[in-house]
Design brief:
With about 130 residues, the protein is mainly β. The protein has no helices and 11 strands.
């Protein structure tokens, strides 16, 4: 199985950028469908972005399309979420997740993922 550790969160002003990292260990992340989710206080965890197995197709929530980019570096076994033009409504704990089967596709549901990191806080000030 894979273990996931997120990093890169912090406090940033609106309009700024952050890059989140999700370091995978135990197995190569390319063997999984990878996803980024976020959870704001009092709200349900929601889909942000996903990437198919072997760094295939990428998918984004409408709220982040054009501002966020998911990517992976096989040499570092790390998945990234580049976040640009951040807005206060992007404030949340961001989680990395991996889906552990052989399929490859669009999986926006929390329940579709088997492994989760501990999360990293992103706070965007206005």
């Amino acid at each position: 199985q894979v273990q996931l550790v997120e990093s890169g969160g912090g406090l940033v002003q609106a309009g700024g950028s952050l890059r989140l990292s999700c370091a995978a260990s135990g197995r190569a992340f390319s063997a999984y469908n990878m996803g980024w989710f976020r959870q704001a206080p009092g709200k349900e965890r929601e889909f942000v972005a996903a990437m198919g197995r072997s760094g295939g197709s990428t998918y984004y929530a409408d709220s982040v399309k054009g501002r966020f980019t998911i990517s992976g570096d096989n040499t570092k076994n790390t998945v990234y979420l580049q976040m640009n033009t951040l807005k206060p409504e992007d404030t949340a704990v961001y989680y990395c997740a991996a889906r552990g089967d052989r399929s490859s596709g669009y999986y926006p549901s929390v329940s579709s993922y088997d492994y989760w990191g501990q999360g990293t806080q992103v706070t965007v000030s206005s």
